[in-house]
Design a protein that fits this description.
6-stranded mixed β-sheet; about 20% helix
């Protein structure tokens, strides 16, 4: 049984999932999905504008590294991070959340995703 299936069996009241990702400024971005789409998040992911990780603190894009306006703002793939699917104690009873990481359309890591940047730094320090 997958993580999503196990979670939903334990929490049948959940109707919505907040899909969360952080940008380079540490601001949480994301969207709320219907629980029926949770499996897709773990099996292939969701398309989401790749420039979202590069927004500034005001939510504007200055087209850093040519990502945003000049490349047509292509989608990246948001995939759920195993072990982060959880209920939200301060939220309504029917909402859960999951943290995500960005990947390119070909499945490679998106080098602008703060989680992947941090992972690269940690690897070098080891």
């Amino acid at each position: 049984m997958s993580e999503a299936e196990t979670f939903l069996a334990q929490h049948p009241e959940i109707r919505f999932i907040d899909v969360l990702n952080y940008d380079l400024c540490g601001i949480m971005r994301g969207k709320r999905i219907d629980v029926s789409q949770l499996g897709k998040l773990y099996d292939g992911g969701f398309q989401f504008p790749s420039s979202c990780v590069l927004l500034d603190v005001t939510g504007d894009s200055s087209d850093p590294d040519g990502r945003g306006f000049s490349d047509g703002d292509p989608d990246g793939i948001l995939a759920g991070i195993p072990g982060t699917l959880a209920t939200i104690p301060w939220q309504e009873d029917d909402v859960a959340q999951v943290l995500t990481s960005y990947y390119e359309e070909d499945g490679s890591i998106m080098v602008d995703d703060p989680r992947h940047v941090l992972g690269g730094v940690v690897s070098k320090l080891r």
